[in-house]
Amino acid sequence: MKMYVRLLALVFALFVASDGISFADSAPTSPDSYPSPWSAGGPDGWDDAYRRAHEFVSKLTLLEKVNLTTGTGNQADRCTGNTGSIPRLGFRELCLQDGPVGIRYKGIGFAQGLDLGKRKTSGRIISFSNNPDLNSAFPAGINAAATWSRSLIRRRGEALGAEFRDKGIDVQLGPVVGPLGRDPAGGRNFEAFGPDPYLAGVAVAQTVEGTQSSGVIASVKHYILNEQEHFRGGISSNIDDKTMHELYLWPFADAVRAGVGSVMCSYNKINNTYACENSYVLNRLLKNELGFQGFVVSDWGGQHSTVASSLSGLDMTMPGDGAFNSTYGSYWGGALTEALLSLAISPFRLDDMAVRIMAAFYKVGRDTKQVDINYSSWTNETVGPQYWRSKTGNTTVNKHVDVQGDHAELIREIGAKSVVLLKNKGNVLPLKKPSSIAIIGEDAQDNPKGPNACVDRICNVGTLAMGWGSATAEFPYLISPAIALEKQASADKTIFSNVKSNWDLGAARAAATNASAAIVFVNANSGEGYQTLDGNFGDRKNLTLWNGGDELIKAVASVNPNTIVVIHSVGPVLIEHVKTHPNVTAILWAGLPGQESGNSLTDVLYGKVNPQGRSPFTWGKAAGDWGITTLVNSSTPQPQQDFTEGSFIDYRYFDHEGIEPSFEFGFGLSYTNFSYANLTVKPQDVGPYEPASGTTKAAPTFGGINYDPLSALLPEGFKKIPGMVYPWIASPEIPDDTGGPDFPYAAHNRSAQPILPAGGAPGGNPELYKVVYVITVDITNTGVVSGTEIPQLYLSLGGPAEPKVVLRGFGEVPINSGETKTVAFNVTYRDLSNWNTEAQDWEVTSYPKTAYVGASSRDLRLHADL
Ligand SMILES: *[C@@H]1O[C@H](CO)[C@@H](O)[C@H](O)[C@H]1NC(C)=O
Ligand SMILES: *[C@@H]1O[C@H](CO)[C@@H](O)[C@H](O)[C@H]1NC(C)=O
Ligand SMILES: *[C@@H]1O[C@H](CO)[C@@H](O)[C@H](O)[C@H]1NC(C)=O
Ligand SMILES: *[C@@H]1O[C@H](CO)[C@@H](O)[C@H](O)[C@H]1NC(C)=O
Ligand SMILES: *[C@@H]1O[C@H](CO)[C@@H](O)[C@H](O)[C@H]1NC(C)=O
Ligand SMILES: *[C@@H]1O[C@H](CO)[C@@H](O)[C@H](O)[C@H]1NC(C)=O
Ligand SMILES: *[C@@H]1O[C@H](CO)[C@@H](O)[C@H](O)[C@H]1NC(C)=O
Ligand SMILES: *[C@@H]1O[C@H](CO)[C@@H](O)[C@H](O)[C@H]1NC(C)=O
Ligand SMILES: *[C@@H]1O[C@H](CO)[C@@H](O)[C@H](O)[C@H]1NC(C)=O
Ligand SMILES: *[C@@H]1O[C@H](CO)[C@@H](O)[C@H](O)[C@H]1NC(C)=O
Ligand SMILES: *[C@@H]1O[C@H](CO)[C@@H](O)[C@H](O)[C@H]1NC(C)=O
């Protein structure tokens, strides 16, 4: 009877569409979008993956499907997150593991009873042994982007994937394109590929393809608009439709087109609805418009509802517990089973959740590449509990499998090729057997307690090679610059001195005074907002150097006319005074290079590698130059952050406002010079853009559902692991209010649905990717050494409200001295388009368009009208 009443309520519920609300309203809303699109298959292996996923899911019971969708609880099992298993079919739990730069053997306590992120500080830190377990620590995302090298970024993804695969991990929690980097102080920007959506899009696609080719599902995160750490669990990022499409959604489209198997929804709200239950961003934008075929997993603790999250497009909850003190200690598990039995959720939705998870599994070949999980996230001991939280199930948890392969070489190469040479007065670099060098600063040194001394790298001791938070891995070792440079000095018979403190300016000056080169190391750190470091709650509280870096540079440069400054930082720092200092001859940004830091840097300083890094962000002269302020104070539990600047972030803002930066986006020097000539534009005969049309199929279902609540009760004799989340219900009396508010009929409508004009395939309408112009340019190496140029294509899309130029192409061109090479750029419909909010489609406007090719966003050497 209850079920019948519920069904009627659903059928008669009205669908109330929301009006467009401007930011003048203090709380804009997201329109509803139902039903949640069911997976449709697609090219590049999706069709085959779907066929097999359908076959598999058809065999599953309701409880088994629920088990696939629900994590068994924080630290319940060996990985950062584990789903339930399907013992009947010999299908083990899925293992999801942090993070974007390698395997993180560590956990920050997701303290029970706290809603992660809702408060300013969330959770207590639980410290575990943090020994590395024969894994690598890769350069951060921001360094990968700084190489501007598709092949290096792809190989980084492959190598990461191989390490995760060989430990038995099914899903790598990375790469990151959210935050994109709206706020230069944003704590997690370094995890991602910089604030330009085109560069981020290329980088994320290469990473996803690399990782997944190694047989591991990539989970691109954090979807979406998680642009600052303060209040990340409650803040509402309010955004207009055009900016959403042209900026923040853009790289996610590239990830989806690259076949990403998983997308992680973020902690924040978008237009006042949590990302993990926002039907507009999940159902409409991600699954319908972008045609995402994989599964959406919640960020850890990012789920806030049982029915709303499912109907809005969430497919898997992690770590599984949540809804603390409720019957099930989870929004899903038994609670999801109840919601199915009460018809609050239609069977086709659960089937789609399970199918999407399994399709991603088959898409990357987990069925043949999966090995047993042979490590534990929570202990480095060989024998220990499989079920960490309950400390039960003692077994050989760590087989100490060495997964490093020859990745150290790749890490060293990426570290070197991501160095951005910002200044090189009188070609003081590369160094050629100088008679003496003085190394100065804490940032050049080893951490005396070891590179992993601080839990999740929440400290700034010794050289900075990784930010802090969940995007960390344990260093197998960390080559500090001082160690690497001392080795080089000894080989060259160079007198070597090393001042380890930032604060003993007398010692710094003394060492620098007569050195042929004084190399000063400085840094600036940031991280994830569950812990404060020196007053920085994840987000940076300022954009200056840390620990007296500015004073140190000044002291050294006051006595040495050949002062070389090396910066390890998460993003831009204010260094105009360094740039203009007459005694500072060279500046290098080395970012967060990972385990080979010192070797990578030495390769560049001594010319073994000719720098090809280009800045993946703009370096302003003052903190206000970016026009963005981190929201750090709020008296309301629902802080509102209006993205009123639209797409004018980073160089788009500097260009628009006419602000002169210290160094612009795309800038970087080489040890040689390049000249540009012969820009050509060849229109391609591809016909006009056709919006997608037609309808999907009706939602399929796989395997029946046994609606007898008795069949969903815990089987007699089953011994639960204490504290673990299970799919069984507590009582055969199904409560009538499992769903909270009733959902419109549309959420349960399984009939064929219209395809959106911009949709139709993974990545959006395939028409968008048709090449409309091929642009070529001839580049000559006019210097005396060979080097790699990164020519950049920028477009002006025209129109009064558009950025001056936007990046739409780049190359990586190794050229020998005196040689000329021709570089080609493909310009697609998408590259030329703006988002038309009326048509809800991409459109090439009638405004005149210009193509520019040059060496940075402000060094636009050649141009042509399109
Ligand atoms: C957010 O609200 C704005 C203003 O009402 C609207 O233009 C936009 O489409 C909404 N976006 C989302 C994702 O809800
Ligand atoms: C669900 O997963 C748990 C944990 O792996 C397992 O113990 C249980 O048997 C599974 N339940 C069903 C119905 O398969
Ligand atoms: C859960 O219950 C415990 C003990 O009764 C209480 O201290 C805690 O605040 C509750 N947590 C939530 C999220 O309600
Ligand atoms: C991880 O351990 C499992 C056995 O537990 C083994 O099958 C697998 O090959 C191991 N991985 C590697 C790379 O040795
Ligand atoms: C585990 O880590 C602890 C603390 O770092 C260390 O003392 C111990 O030797 C490690 N054990 C193994 C098996 O590596
Ligand atoms: C599990 O193994 C650990 C380490 O060997 C030991 O200290 C502990 O007593 C064991 N627990 C059980 C329940 O056997
Ligand atoms: C630097 O060199 C000068 C001239 O050779 C010498 O007089 C002076 O003592 C040296 N200073 C230091 C600090 O080594
Ligand atoms: C900026 O913050 C860093 C890190 O907390 C600190 O070391 C530095 O002194 C601050 N800069 C200024 C100018 O206060
Ligand atoms: C540059 O270095 C010289 C020593 O070689 C020193 O005399 C001069 O004051 C320095 N210039 C500045 C601006 O610090
Ligand atoms: C420009 O193109 C012409 C014709 O192909 C060629 O002769 C010339 O060398 C090119 N110039 C440069 C600088 O590459
Ligand atoms: C440009 O497009 C052509 C096909 O139109 C393709 O073969 C080529 O690989 C593309 N080049 C790049 C750099 O994307």
TrEMBL record:
Keywords: Carbohydrate metabolism, Glycoprotein, Glycosidase, Hydrolase, Polysaccharide degradation, Signal. Residues 1-20 form the signal peptide. SUPFAM superfamilies: (Trans)glycosidases, Beta-D-glucan exohydrolase, C-terminal domain. SMART domains: Fn3_like. Pfam families: Fn3-like, Glyco_hydro_3, Glyco_hydro_3_C. One of its GO terms (biological process) is cellulose catabolic process. Residues 789-857 form the Fibronectin type III-like domain. Its EC number is 3.2.1.21. Pathway: Glycan metabolism; cellulose degradation. One of its GO terms (molecular function) is beta-glucosidase activity. It catalyses: Hydrolysis of terminal, non-reducing beta-D-glucosyl residues with release of beta-D-glucose. InterPro entries: Cellulose_deg_GH3, Fn3-like, GH, Glyco_hydro_3_AS, Glyco_hydro_3_C, Glyco_hydro_3_C_sf, Glyco_hydro_3_N, Glyco_hydro_3_N_sf. Belongs to the glycosyl hydrolase 3 family. This is beta-glucosidase. It comes from Xylaria multiplex.
